[in-house]
Design a protein that fits this description.
By secondary structure, the protein is an alpha/beta fold. It is 48% helix and 12% strand. It comes from Craurococcus roseus.
Length: 292
Amino acid sequence: MSNPALRRALQHRRFVVAPGVFDMISAKVADGMGFAALYATGFGTVASHLGLPDAGLATYTDMLGRVRTFAEGCRTPIIADADTGYGGLLNVRHTVAGYEAAGVAGIQLEDQETPKKCGHTPGRRVIPAEEMALKVRVAAETRRNPDFLIVARTDARTTHGLDEAIRRGRLYAEAGADVVFIESPESEAEMAEIGRSIRKPLLANMVEGGRTPILPAERLAQLGYAIAIYPAVGFLAAAAALERAYAHLKAHGDSTGLPPGESYGFGRICELMGFPEVWDFEKRWSSSEAPR
């Protein structure tokens, strides 16, 4: 069952900041911090699961298993990246049904050609807008719960310009998208133009080192945006922390002397992963104390 909290937040115009999650440690950490939504990043999930670039190499099956694990392990609503829907219209129907059954609150579909590429890398090509509009219509028709959100993304800005990207955003909104995602605008002025031009909740993709300026949540809301995703912030921080810790181990031959704050702490990670409940269960059902 889709979590209705995210749709309610949009209806009440509460700005949503969604950190990217890419494995269950990142998901568990973010889930306990009070965010209105989490974003299951395709880039980060493919990297952590397969060790491959986000270049259309992961399959529907690869991603569905991860998405289901995120949804089952988190209380926070999750928006999940589903690339192009993994094929044509029939694939989109299958993907939407699978993602909704997995328990996420929303699915993101994009208008790139297959194989797709990461939205802030060069060489992206898009399918005709009318083909994507059909995908959006199929997605909206397929969902069983109206709280399940359809996020329609266009990658047309980089190759075809802002006007074409806005035209596509409007078309996808008319086709039934609940949220419109114009990927990689290149200035605050472009983001303002998007906000003036599309009368549907808008999603901003805040990628450190990407093509779009990173703006405060208050400013994004002023420009007309409803959601800001930060897909890379978690895995960029995690990779940097791992590199520092492994470099220390290589240089010193042990893990003592790591600077304060560099380690999460074994007790804390045990608690995060749910070990206290396991220990309580084992104690309760031990041979000497089992319920009768």
